Amino acid sequence: MKDIILKPIDLKVGDYHIISLNGKDLENYHTAAEDVFKILSDDETLQFIPEKRLRSVKDAQEWLFTNVLNFHTGRNYLQVIRSRKTGRLIGMIDLLSPALVREDYQLKEYPYFLEFYLKSEARGANVMTVLLPELLRVLYARGISNIAAVADRSNLAARSVLARSGFVDQGVFDLRKDLFEATDQARAKYAV
């Protein structure tokens, strides 16, 4: 599969707004870094992905800078999730390109991989249940058809969200996680 350069996303769904973090959205870089740090240092958020932990706001600034560069080079596409009512950051969705995945994993195929992170107070509010199908519609419309995700075997909420959005458990990914792939039915259901 050829990697696609994704144009920025600006998607409003119900109470949520998904916006690509492509540099234009960083008017207040320090506040954005503090918001990201709150998510990627929260014990509840990182329960199943401790390797994503950031140690400081400075680390969050570097992480943001890297993600803005990666967006423009097509390595990964970070989307922020904001409340439409308050404008506050409540989560993030990252789309990893096949080229980036290829650097770290040996797989038969290299799909685009979705990762999502929510503030602990947003958990249980069906945020990803609402947003993931709409994001899939956008991705399919933009030519990204092979999409996968991994979920910790103990993360029942993430596994449920993926299943409801048309992803099927394909089995073991690594020692703790399973691989989920979007099915043909999901592509047909969410195709524009």
At a glance:
The relative contact order is 0.15. The chain contains six helices and eight strands; from the N terminus they run ββααββαβαβαββα. A hairpin with a 4-residue loop joins strand 7 (167-172) and strand 8 (177-182).
Notable characteristics:
192 residues; alpha+beta; Aminopeptidase; 8-stranded mixed β-sheet; 34% helix
Radius of gyration: 16 Å
Query: Which stretches are poorly predicted, pLDDT < 50 over at least 5 residues?
Result: none
What is the CATH superfamily? Answer: Gcn5-related N-acetyltransferase (GNAT)
Structural class: alpha+beta
SS element count, helices: 6
Shape: globular
- How would you sum up the major sheet? 8 strands, mixed
Which CATH first-tier class would you pick?
A: Alpha Beta
Average of the residue pLDDT scores: 89
Total domain units: 1
Distance between the first and last residues' Cα? 21 Å
CATH architecture: 3-Layer(aba) Sandwich
Strands of the widest sheet, in order across it, are 1-2-3-4-5-6-8-7
Q: Could you tell me the strand content as a percent range? A: 25-35%
The percentage helix is 25-40%
Q: In the CATH scheme, what's the topology name?
A: Aminopeptidase
Number of strands: 8
> What are the secondary-structure elements, in order, as H or E?
EEHHEEHEHEHEEH
Task: Characterize the structure shown.
The chain has a single domain, classed as Gcn5-related N-acetyltransferase (GNAT) (Aminopeptidase, 3-Layer(aba) Sandwich), CATH 3.40.630. α1 crosses α2. It starts with 9 loop residues before the first strand and ends with a helix. 34% of the residues lie in helices and 26% in strands. It has an 8-stranded mixed sheet, sandwiched between helices. With 192 residues, it is α+β, with helices and mostly antiparallel strands.
